Automatic annotation (TrEMBL):
<feature type="transmembrane region" description="Helical">
    <location>
        <begin position="12"/>
        <end position="40"/>
    </location>
</feature>
<keyword id="KW-0472">Membrane</keyword>
<dbReference type="InterPro" id="IPR007401">
    <property type="entry name" value="DUF454"/>
</dbReference>
<dbReference type="Pfam" id="PF04304">
    <property type="entry name" value="DUF454"/>
</dbReference>
<keyword id="KW-1133">Transmembrane helix</keyword>
<protein>
    <submittedName>
        <fullName>Inner membrane protein YbaN</fullName>
    </submittedName>
</protein>
<keyword id="KW-0812">Transmembrane</keyword>
<feature type="transmembrane region" description="Helical">
    <location>
        <begin position="105"/>
        <end position="123"/>
    </location>
</feature>
Length: 129
């Protein structure tokens, strides 16, 4: 990956920290996925400062999630079920609050796209005990 000009690197690092904050929220909130935010944070840190990327990858749980994703190992089946159920729950609870039918349809399609991506494109990691 090509490095951005040095004047943009602090912005990438700042974005990495914002994305990390979303990731932490995702670890706490039940219907808010956290892994995707950490993956994006690692990508931002890699463009801004490799030391922050190394720091993120050295975190016990988060580093493993990001490393597994980057290596193409995918998600455990249980995590895929939880992610899809969280998307369905979030969409189901929020659609009635959207006043415009077109917005409701668009939101359902976004949720469906997320579920399809997880089920069809993300590999399932079969952990052997």
């Amino acid at each position: 990956m090509t490095r951005p000009p040095s004047r943009f690197r602090p912005l990438w690092v700042a974005l990495g920290f914002v994305l990390c904050a979303f990731g932490v929220l995702g670890l706490i909130l039940p219907a808010f996925p956290g892994t995707v935010w950490f993956i994006l944070a690692a990508a931002a840190f890699s463009r801004g400062d490799p030391r922050w990327e190394a720091w993120l990858l050295s975190r016990p749980v988060v580093g493993t999630l990001v490393t597994d994703y980057r290596a193409g190992r995918g998600m455990p089946l249980r995590a895929k079920w939880i992610a899809c159920a969280s998307i369905a729950l979030a969409v189901g609870l929020s659609v009635p609050r959207i006043p415009v039918l077109a917005g409701q349809v668009a939101w359902v399609l976004v949720g469906l796209a997320g579920v399809l991506f997880i089920t069809l494109r993300v590999p399932t990691r079969r952990d052997t005990p």
